[in-house]
Amino acid sequence: MLQTSDNTEKYRTGREPSTWHYEDFARRLLGEARELFGKCPDIPAIVGMHINDADGPAELLAAVLASATPAESDPGIVRLHSRTVFQGDRTALDSALRDIAVTSEKNFEPGGISATLFFSRGIHALLGHRVAHSLWNNGQRDRALALKTIFGRAYSTDIHPAARFGKGIWLDHGLGFVVGETAIVGDEACIWHGVTLGSTLKDNGSQRHPRIGRGVTIGADAILLGGINIGDGSVIAAGSIVLGDIDPHTTVAGAPARPKARKADSFAGF
Q1: Angstrom distance (rounded) from CA 21 to CA 94
Q2: Long-range contacts for 109-114 (Cβ within 8 Å, ≥24 apart)?
Q3: CA dist., res. 98 & res. 170, Å (int)
Q4: Rounded distance, CA 50 to CA 209, Å?
Q5: CA-closest candidate to residue 159, choices 139, 136, 138, 140
Q6: CA angle 72, 176, 114 (to 5 degrees)
Q7: Distances (CA, A) of 18 to 15, 34, 45, 216, 234
Q8: Which residues are 258's β-sheet partners?
Q9: Rounded mean pLDDT of 107-117?
Q10: How far, in Å, CA of 80 to CA of 50, rounded?
């Protein structure tokens, strides 16, 4: 039995939303997946899946990851390890389902939660990281790095398996997302494509990558470097370069990033 994943300490919410019911959402996801497969019978073949893959939440998420496995890799092995994680690590499964729920709410594309699972590259990248991170935490570090590598090939990301993510993450598009080993991403963060959470190469310690607070929004191609703290509810504009701490509920923009006044019509994050 796998141990549950870490809770990202203070960067998690500290409480579960009262409206969240894991079992209800899992049943709804499976029902919508079966409905979609029944309505469009060719979709499972198009995405490399089978209608029987919707028999359970762990099996379904594992099948999604296996379906995107590069041709040179064995999808059966990917499916096995992914299913084992989602069956044995309740935190990994709950976090993955919460990511799907939040993404389906915040994304403007139609199709509901099943379409979010099958067609969102950001969700796929997060699913892959949930698997690799769980394996890393359970001492299977070589296997975690191997899976991180093939998921990176499939989704054009580079997320270190040790990086810690909260729940309810919206990773829009996901392409070009780079995350270093000691980074922490808090609950309900919204992150666009091309974002880098990296180091300055001046520090080889245990906190050399950014720590992102709860509900932070990071625009496309923003670069955050070093062991910096990004306060809850902050907004980092697209293309910004952030090298220092950001206070909670602050908007920054530019290179280097500087605070911007929030007006009544300012974007204040998701």
Answers
A1: 10
A2: 112/32, 113/25, 113/28, 113/29, 113/32, 114/29, 114/32, 114/33, 114/35, 114/36
A3: 10
A4: 40
A5: 136
A6: 75
A7: 9, 28, 38, 21, 24
A8: 253
A9: 86
A10: 16
* pTM greater than the 0.85 cutoff: yes
Q: What is the pLDDT of residue 19?
A: 61
What secondary structure letter does DSSP report for 165?
E
Structure-block tokens of residue 179: 């995350």
DSSP-derived letter for residue 138 is T
CB atoms within 10 A of CB 46: 10
Locate tokens 């989602």: which residue? 86
Reduce the DSSP state of residue 164 to 3 states and report it: strand
**Per-residue exposure over 60-88, b if at least 16 CB sit within 10 Å of its own CB, e if not:** bbbbbbbbbbeeebebeebbebbbbbbbb
For residue 178, pLDDT over 90 is answered with: yes
Contact indicator for 165, 146 with CB cutoff of 8 Å: no
The tokens of 107 are what?
Answer: 């994304």
